[in-house]
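Pipeline run #58 for the internal structure catalog. This entry was flagged by the ingest filter as a single-chain record with no existing model, so it goes straight to prediction. Upstream metadata was stripped on purpose; only the residue string is passed forward. Reviewer on rotation: M.T. Logging verbosity set to normal.
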Amino acid sequence: MSKEKELTKKITRAGVIAALYTVTSLVTAPIASGAIQVRLSEALTLLALIFPEAVPALFIGCALSNLITGCAIFDIILGSLITLVAATLTYAVGRIIKNTAVKVFIGGLFPVLLNAFLLPLIWMLCYGTGEYVYILQVVFLCIGQGVSVYALGIPLIVAINKRKV
């Protein structure tokens, strides 16, 4: 495949990933935002294991989702940066670890743990949530992110890997 076609394919894939993240977040907005959330679009974070273009796409999708749903500016910026860092680390795991099961397990830890531990800190800054709810928010985010990343993301990765073979 020519370099131009390959680049077009990657840009298109990135656009589709960003759009899917945004649309999924908006369609599921009642459960995708807030202190207790299950952002189903986070299943797409495992795509960074396979596609490098998923890294900026996830960042853009998260930023658009947060912007459209009316989050505070620091939540939009910092929350999206958390997604960027998590996706970058997930991508690195995809390049370093060869065993698929280990790769998926470790790669999924970044979006789960970074969001769970850092988002409540951003919410304290933006929305004035107290320190006393921090632990509860971490627990709820771990559960919600775990469901999205592992319960939904793993079948997605399996399906894509089967298709690639």
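catalog note: Helices lie at 3-27, 29-32, 54-68, 73-96, 100-127, 134-164.
catalog note: The chain has a mean pLDDT of 93.
status: ready for reviewer M.T.
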